Amino acid sequence: MAHWIKKIVLHPGLFPLQIKVNIVLSVAADRIAIQSKGQYTANLSPQNLISCCAKNRHGCNSGSIDRAWWYLRKRGLVSHACYPLFNDQNATNNGCAMTSRSDRRGKRHATKPCPNSIEKSNRIYQCSPPYRVSS
Known about the structure:
By secondary structure, the chain is mostly helical. The protein has one domain: Cysteine proteinases (Cathepsin B, Chain A, Alpha-Beta Complex). It is 33% helix and 4% strand. It is built from four helices and two strands; from the N terminus they run H-H-H-H-E-E. The chain has a two-stranded antiparallel ribbon with strand order 1-2. The longest helix has 19 residues.
């Protein structure tokens, strides 16, 4: 693991949540692209994660990388085009603008349209559990 990633994981208070969210989403997008053999390369929505991961969320003031990854696995996220960032980065009071339901295989499907009415794809992206990548 890269030194700076270890520093973020071992000393989470040193970095703002937005940086941690972007790191988690970058790694998750990479894993989704690998799992789908390059078929899905969406830029995942940080606002979806900040607004909808209700347990232990504190807007951009705190947060847990483990909880974010759990949310990605179990609930999934839409693309940034579907759920763009709000002007207020701590807009947790706005609540979650996306909801989803699970099919019998654990795959999530959106039950609301995108908050960005221009974007039509409200596909939910989920990722596998974290795993070690050999170097």
